[in-house]
Structures are given as structure tokens and as C-alpha cells.
Amino acid sequence: MYASREDIGYDFGDDSKVGSKPIKPNPNIDGGWAWMIVLSSFLVHILIMGSQMALGILNMEWLEEFNQSRGLTAWVSSLSMGITLIVGPFIGLFISMCGCRMTAIIGGILNALGWILSAYASNVHYLFLTFGVTAGIGSGMVYLPAVVMVGQYFQKRRALAQGLSTTGTGFGAFLMTALLKYLCTEFGWRNAMFIQGAISLNLCVCGALMRPLSPKDLREKYVVRSDSEENRAKALSHSTETIKSNGVLSEEPDKKEEAANEEVLGSVQHIEIGGKSGSGRSMYGLRILKTVSQLTVTVRKGFALWYSSYFGAASLFTNRVFVAFIIWALFAYSSFVIPFIHLPEIVKQYNLSRQDNVFPLTSIIAIVHIFGKVILGIISDLPCISTWNVFLMANFTLVTCILTLPLMQTYVGLAVVCALIGFSSGYFSLMPVVTEDLVGTKHLANAYGIIICANGISALFGPPFAGWIYDITQKYDFSFYIAGLLYMVGIIFLLVQPCIQKKQPREKSTEEAQV
């Protein structure tokens, strides 16, 4: 089984240099301000992912208000959840140019605007634009930086830190379900969305807490990580040349580009110094030129990093296991989202509304989901446990629950299955860790952006597909069966690709021995 990217033979160059001198660890790595980053990410998950998990409440309000089909109405929630994740690769470009803090603050404003504008919706199609697109893009601009910043600030306890921060999804689903129920009952769904928009402005505060690490701090983290993995790296049978052919991004063009950029800025500064004796208007113009030049350099550098990660000769897509991970993500997320959107309707069909009002099934998923993320994160951080194996076992449990859920028609049976769904879906906290193990910290933003984009596509089409199947069969059973089978296909890709990748070097060495 796969344990880290060294076992697979991929290294994207962020850990290749091992320091010869002992370096004093930065107090903000695995401690200090790192825990403020965890708090910020935790609140982001409450306000974004938790709110989206509670959209089943608003979905029922929209069905009554606009009197549209379940398939069409489900597109509102799906667009919001899907676009939040689909825009991941493009948000990676924003992060490369503006940084996580600025990206998150802008996203918080956009998300709040989407909620507020949706309060004035006159039809479902209006909600597609305001809630689905506007709020969805804003959510994506906050969500990805929240995940990336935790990965940057933690080295030894990454899985635990990601687990703690992502428990906000479970807390949020529980709190937001109760809040939206109360607000819709007391003030109506329109005022509820307006109030939720005001609450979402707190995302800007969360973004302000995302203080970036200095380049020196990042270099220290890479050195510490290289030292801790040196013993495992010595066991590799691949040579340096082989690793480079598998995907090391060349740093020579970056150095040349930096030299050219410094030359441009230097020439502007030289003109500015030489023109001090000139008029004030000329000096003002030179300052504007210098600012524009610096902005151009930042944009070019960010775009170059973003482009090379996706489309370069040694792009992320040359990593076969990472490609298998993408295929898995295309099928997995809809299996988790469909119950949250359609469980209120299923409960109503089975005449279980009285029991569900006492303790909603979605709240059971949300509460157990919290413990699942923390426990799986702690287990994965144990030195004798493979994160990859924990990830796969949780996936197998979740797909089994999805296939079993339609067979349960009592509240107790549904509650047990929902609890298992909540616990096993705690593997979401391991996704950033697995992604970082595959591609390295340097490319985490772009790589995880691709993964959540694939998840977004899954979330975009899952609930409307389930609603469409219901409109045809008047049952949700087939929706869960088909979603579970597609999910199983994705898991099979995860199992097959690491085995193929491990066999290739051995086959090559056998051929060389024969020659």
C-alpha cells in the first residue's frame, strides 16, 4: 500500500534540498500562530461548508415557494456546492498572485453579497445566478486558502490540524441546520438568507487571520521535512535523474525570469533616483510606473507557477496516482452530498417527520462527522499507520453505507447508517494530507484546487441527478445505488494505480539486469 509520495517515485522538488546545518525551528510551525490558522480554517468550514450541508432546509422552502420540480430546484444547492469546489484551480491562480489573505477577504465579501441578493429572488433561475454562482465563487475564494494555510503552517501534526479545522463542517452542519430552521420559521426564508449574508461577512475576519509565512519560514519547513524523511529517501531505488524525469519542475526558468524582473525594477528605480531633480509630476509618474511594474512582475510570476503546474512538461498530470485521485474525486463527493440535500424529503416520504424533528438525521451525520475527522486524523498521525490505508478503509465504509441506506425504512435504521456515513466521511480531513504527500507543499494549492474541482463536478451533478431519478421512479433508491456504484469505480482506480506505479521500476530494473 501507498504511504507517501517517495514510495511512488514522485517528487516535485520542494523537499530535494537537505540542509547541512541544524536550523532553529520556527515557533509558528506546528505551534504559535499556526493554531490561529486552525481556528480561522475551522470558522471558514462552519460558515461555508456547514451552511451548504444545511441547504436541505432551504431546498424545501424553495420547492413550496416556486413550485418547480425537485430536479430543477436541486440545481440551486448543487450550483453553490459545485462552483465552490470547481473554481479551485482558478483560485490557485489568485493565491499565486495575491496570496491567501487577500483572496479570502475578497471571497468573504462576494459570498455575503450572494446570500443577500438571493433574499430578493423572484424565481429559481434568479437563485442560479445569485446563490449558485455569486455565493459559490465567493465560497471557493475562502475555502481553498483556509485549507492551504493549514498545510503551510503544520509539518509534524498535519493530519490532526486538518482534522481539527475541518470539523467545522460537522459543527456548521449541526448549527446552521438549527439556525436556518429557526430563522425560516420566525422570519421566513428570505429574511433568513439576508441574516445569513450578514453572518457570512465574518469570513473577511477569518481571511485577515491568514498571516502568510515568510519565504525564510517556508524554506526552514522544507529543510525540516527533508531531514525527517531522509531515511526513507535513502531506501529509494530511483536515481536523481529518474526522479527528475518523473516530474521535477525546473527551477532554471524561474531564476532567469526573476533576474529579468529585477532588471526591469532596477531600471525603473535608477530612473526614479536620477529624476529626483525633475518636476513633482514626473516623479509621480515614475512611482506609478514602478507600482505597475511590480504588479506586472507579481502577476507574471504567479501565472507562470500556476501554468507550469497544470500544463508544463512536468505538470501535476504526469503523476499517475494523482490522476487516479482526480478520477476518484469525480465520483466520491456526490455520494456524501445527496443524503444532505434529499434526506428531509426521504424522511417525509417514510412518515418519520416527528422523530426527525426531535433529532434530524442530517444533524446525526454532522455530529458524528466531527468525531470522525478528529479520530481519523489522530490515527493517521501515528508513525505505524499509513494515511493512505486509513483513507481507503474510510472510503470502503462510506460506499457500503450509501448502498445500504435505501434498505432502511425505520428511523433507528436510518440513524445508524447516517452515523456511519458521518464517521467514515471524516476522511475529508485526510484529503489535503494525501494530496500534499503526492505533490509536495509547494504545489499543494494548485493540486488541491484540482481535487476540489473534481469534487465540485461531482457535487454539481449529484443532487439534480438524484432529483431527476425521483421524478421518473418516485423513489430515491436507484439514486443511491447508482451513486454508490460510481463511487466504487473511483475507489478501484485508487487501488489499481499505486500497484501499477510500484511495479514499473521493478520491471525496468529486471530488464536492465537481463541486458
TrEMBL record:
<feature type="transmembrane region" description="Helical">
    <location>
        <begin position="192"/>
        <end position="210"/>
    </location>
</feature>
<feature type="transmembrane region" description="Helical">
    <location>
        <begin position="361"/>
        <end position="379"/>
    </location>
</feature>
<feature type="transmembrane region" description="Helical">
    <location>
        <begin position="102"/>
        <end position="120"/>
    </location>
</feature>
<dbReference type="GO" id="GO:0016020">
    <property type="term" value="C:membrane"/>
</dbReference>
<dbReference type="InterPro" id="IPR036259">
    <property type="entry name" value="MFS_trans_sf"/>
</dbReference>
<feature type="transmembrane region" description="Helical">
    <location>
        <begin position="386"/>
        <end position="405"/>
    </location>
</feature>
<keyword id="KW-1133">Transmembrane helix</keyword>
<feature type="transmembrane region" description="Helical">
    <location>
        <begin position="321"/>
        <end position="341"/>
    </location>
</feature>
<feature type="transmembrane region" description="Helical">
    <location>
        <begin position="33"/>
        <end position="55"/>
    </location>
</feature>
<feature type="transmembrane region" description="Helical">
    <location>
        <begin position="411"/>
        <end position="434"/>
    </location>
</feature>
<feature type="transmembrane region" description="Helical">
    <location>
        <begin position="446"/>
        <end position="466"/>
    </location>
</feature>
<keyword id="KW-0812">Transmembrane</keyword>
<feature type="transmembrane region" description="Helical">
    <location>
        <begin position="126"/>
        <end position="148"/>
    </location>
</feature>
<feature type="transmembrane region" description="Helical">
    <location>
        <begin position="160"/>
        <end position="180"/>
    </location>
</feature>
<dbReference type="GO" id="GO:0008028">
    <property type="term" value="F:monocarboxylic acid transmembrane transporter activity"/>
</dbReference>
<dbReference type="InterPro" id="IPR011701">
    <property type="entry name" value="MFS"/>
</dbReference>
<feature type="domain" description="Major facilitator superfamily (MFS) profile">
    <location>
        <begin position="37"/>
        <end position="502"/>
    </location>
</feature>
<dbReference type="InterPro" id="IPR020846">
    <property type="entry name" value="MFS_dom"/>
</dbReference>
<dbReference type="Pfam" id="PF07690">
    <property type="entry name" value="MFS_1"/>
</dbReference>
<feature type="transmembrane region" description="Helical">
    <location>
        <begin position="75"/>
        <end position="95"/>
    </location>
</feature>
<keyword id="KW-0472">Membrane</keyword>
<protein>
    <submittedName>
        <fullName>MOT14 protein</fullName>
    </submittedName>
</protein>
<dbReference type="InterPro" id="IPR050327">
    <property type="entry name" value="Proton-linked_MCT"/>
</dbReference>
<feature type="transmembrane region" description="Helical">
    <location>
        <begin position="478"/>
        <end position="496"/>
    </location>
</feature>
